[in-house]
Design goal:
This protein is globular. Helix content is 32%, strand content 27%. The protein has three domains: 44 residues, Uridine Diphospho-n-acetylenolpyruvylglucosamine Reductase, domain 2 (2-Layer Sandwich), CATH 3.30.43; 116 residues, Uridine Diphospho-n-acetylenolpyruvylglucosamine Reductase, domain 3 (2-Layer Sandwich), CATH 3.30.465.10; 79 residues, CO dehydrogenase flavoprotein, C-terminal domain (Enolase-like, domain 1, 2-Layer Sandwich). The protein is of the alpha+beta class. The structure holds flavin-adenine dinucleotide. The site of flavin-adenine dinucleotide has 32 residues, from strand 2, helix 6, helix 7, helix 8 and strand 10.
Length: 261
């Protein structure tokens, strides 16, 4: 880690103003909880940073028909304490309330979390399981895609340097949705989201994998669950060996999906 380089600060107040400046050399930011360490480490070297927090259209939490619309600069704390989110997506509210520490929750945003695509994310895992989508704005217009398509791999998304993540749409959670994580350090070691789909269960595993990995299982699918667990590509790290993570995951899924491994 070193001191921050000298940078120009740009503070647009509309999405169009922001789109007119952002590119490879003008990096957008919201909470800066990920961007500042990246600048200090020298893995990002823009000449200017573009503050998104003064753009009203990037904020707000609303319920529309059967989904929530979350502005990209919504902080983890806002998500966790929102009555609408607690009512329509209680698992998401609870997961946001357990992200990092109080500083990260009060400044870090859901948009920054997805755009940075750090694999050890809670929200990405749950949002993929819930079938959430992202709204993106760029010089050639707007588009919507699933969070699953948006996250390509570790620290890699489909967002171009001249595009903004504007908001996230999250279908109301079906009853029985759960999110569980194993965590030894400041970020999750393994996160598992389980969402009922009829009499089946969509399972998404994240944090221990380069990007969230999904499977869908019905009653009695013990063999399929075992093969899913085997194929996850877990690796050894400071939080534990791949074998340890697989054993924890196997035990959790057996209990959660109600089958004997
Ligand atoms: C100590 C610590 C503990 C953490 N623990 C957890 C945890 O337990 N679980 C978890 O899920 N996460 C955890 N995190 C990650 C945390 O969720 C993210 O740091 C935070 O949400 C990122 O949001 P931000 O607004 O600060 O992003 P920023 O740092 O502002 O931006 C991150 C990246 O996204 C880009 N960006 C941001 N917003 C937009 C946008 N709207 N459009 C286009 N590009 C954008 C920026 O250019 C940058 O590249 C932790 C982080 C820290 C530092």
């Amino acid at each position: 880690m070193s001191v921050l380089p000298e940078l120009e600060l740009v503070r647009p107040t509309s999405i169009d103003e922001a789109l007119a400046v952002i590119d490879e050399n003008h990096a957008p930011y919201a909470g800066a909880t990920e961007l500042v360490p990246a600048l200090r480490l020298g893995v990002r070297f823009p000449i200017a940073i573009v503050d998104l927090k003064r753009i009203d259209d990037l904020g707000g939490i609303t319920a529309e028909a059967d989904q929530l619309r979350l502005g990209a600069v919504t902080t983890h704390r806002e998500l966790a304490s929102s009555d609408i989110v607690r009512d329509k997506a209680p698992t998401l509210a609870a997961a946001a309330g357990r992200v990092g520490n109080a500083r990260v929750r009060s400044t870090g945003t859901i948009g920054g979390n997805l755009c940075f695509a750090e694999p050890r994310s809670d929200l990405a895992t749950l949002l993929v399981a819930l079938g959430a989508t992202v709204d993106i704005a760029g010089p050639s217009g707007s588009l919507t895609m699933s969070v699953d398509d948006f996250i390509v791999g570790a620290f890699e998304t489909r967002l171009g340097p001249d595009e903004l993540l504007v908001g996230i749409r999250v279908p109301f959670e079906p009853a029985g949705t759960t999110y569980w994580k194993l965590q030894s350090y400041e970020r999750p070691t393994i996160g598992v989201a389980v969402v009922p789909v009829g009499d089946r269960r969509r399972v998404v595993v994240g944090a221990a994998t380069e990007r969230p990995v999904a499977g869908e299982f019905g009653p009695g699918d013990a063999e399929a669950v075992e093969s899913f667990t085997e194929r996850l590509g877990l690796s050894d790290d400071l939080a534990g060996s791949a074998e340890y993570k697989r054993a924890v995951l196997r035990g959790y899924l057996a209990e959660r999906l109600d089958h004997v491994p």
